[in-house]
Amino acid sequence: MSAWLWAGVLVVAAWAAHWGADQLLTPLRKLRKQWGLTASAGAAFLAIVTASPEVAINITSAARGVSNIGLGNLLGSNIISIPLMVTIAYFASRKQFKNNPKHQEHLDANLLALNKRSVSVLSLPYLGIIALVAVLTLPKAWRGLQPIEGWIMLGAYGAFLIHAIVKGRKEGEKVEWTQKKIWLSIAGAFAIAAGAFFIVKATENIVTALGISEIVGGLFITGIITTAPEVFKTWSVVMGGEVTAGTTSVIADNAVTMTVAFFPLALVTTPVEDFQLYWVNLAFVGLMPLLYSVFVHQSKQLHGFSKWQIFVFDAAYVAYLLIMAFFVLKLF
Asked: Which residue from 1, 21, 201, 304 could staple onto 111, CB 3.0 to 4.6 Å apart?
């Protein structure tokens, strides 16, 4: 098969994996309501499923002996996701919501409305996770992803989830379960597994055809393609009036990716073969939530992101692409 045909397989597989994640979301959403979790805490809880395609991809890449594809996917998806989802959420929120009359104030001020609690519940703990990854993988003595580090990061996700749930509890609601939704959830689990297998298989063949490294393929092929379906979910959620939920879910997803999806790569011992490429990417992984936290703290009466702050997010990603092209990969 040609690279173009494998590219088609990659796109279809990514959509299949995310369709499966959407089906698994239903029971977790019911549990979120039943347990009385707020939007920010619920995002951390639901991320177990929404980030499951990335986790499945890394399990598959580790099992197939191409863990660098998984490492590239882990880093690449975490860099592009925040600026992309914040930008999509901003444009999706440029309308009035009947169920949220206060939103008009944010429209008048040209702000993307955001609950300030999301910083303490999600963003700052996520920055702590990135700092832990840096401490564990950057020093020369233990550079790379090793089994003991995988267990540490798995524990870090447990702490992240418990912190989010404890900080964001309210009175629960009564929910009903239907057999149809349960069967769809089971089908979703199979779709995630099949999608992840073909995403990795397609990336393997594309990087071979293009003559690029596995980690670069993971960064700019797998990482971007697997993030793309999230654009439509973010747009849909924000257009439905749930601006905070649509905007903050990306932070929770990234926390799962940097911990749970880190685990299978560490179990098979993934070395850092290009140190400059690794630390530059990890630095930009940390820059995005840092901007997120700083910008939210800058807002005063109306919490959220202004138009110029959205531009800074996008400019940071453009700067990342230029640094990678000119100084790391030296394409020009």
From this structure: 304
Cα-based distances in Å from 207 to 69, 128, 200, 214, 304: 10, 33, 11, 6, 40
Whether the predicted pLDDT of 122 surpasses 70: yes
Q: Residues 99-122: what's their mean pLDDT?
A: 74
Pick the CATH number of 3-328 from 1.10.760.10, 1.20.1420.30, 2.40.10.480, 1.10.10.10: 1.20.1420.30
| CB-based contact 18:199 (threshold 8 Å) | no
The 10 Å Cβ neighbour count of residue 158 is 12
Question: Do 135 and 279 contact (CB within 8 A), yes or no?
Answer: no
CA 201-205-208 angle, to 5 degrees, is 140
Distance CA 267, CA 211 (A): 27
At 30-52, the pLDDT tens digits run 766 676 666 666 677 677 777 88
Collapse the DSSP code of 36 into the 3-class scheme (helix H, G, I; strand E, B; otherwise coil) and give the result: coil
Quick check: 26 pLDDT over 80?
no
